Known about the structure:
The chain has helices spanning about 1-15, 15-40, 45-55, 60-75, 80-85, 90-125, 135-160, 165-185, 195-205, 215-235.
Amino acid sequence: MTRLVGAELLKLRTTRTFWALSGSALGLVLLIVVLNVAIEDTFGAEHDVVELLSTVGLCGLLTLVLGAVIGAGEYRHGTIASTLLVTPQRLRAVGAQVLAGALGGLAIGLGVGAITAAIAIPWLAVKDAAMPAADELLQVFLGGGVYAGLAAAFGVGLGALLRNQVAAVVIVLVTIFVVEPALAALIEGFGAFTLTGLGAAITGVEEGPEVLAPGTAVFVWALYATVLAVLAAISTSRRDI
């Protein structure tokens, strides 16, 4: 399994899409953070700083799209046939792709978080912002990396299940921006189990009785990704490639 994941990581880091989305994630996060720090004169509350730095969580949205592109890309480019010739066990093949996506997303999230922290934290300190405790900052940046990794894994499973890049990306965006808000408004308590709610819990930007604990949120998201991966493997095993 280690060799399979290594092969998938090699595919991932040698594609332009991976580096393009990585650069986009870094540029978007830095743009938002830098503009806010430059424009805002004071950050009087620790939560304001946490909310600003949790912008790193935007990586999760982009790695979710990246995962969907990766999962469906094998079918679009016709490379799935050679992949399955090397690894006939569909679950192992899909599982390796999901794990590689998770590691790639984690790397993006942690990298963007580290660069953002190196720029924003000293700048905020100079402006005498009310800085949160070290463990809160760690949760924001580490949680952002974990969130990005889980989002990529979820996207890979969805892409492999649908086998269509455009459909997978559209479904992801419609789910996050349309379906989830509507269901959260209609069903009490549902918001905590949405992709957005889980991401907020993992990064620590939201707390309270209606928000899952970070560890629980990680487990639920990992469960979502696992279910999609299994469904994708079952679907692939029943279809001719």
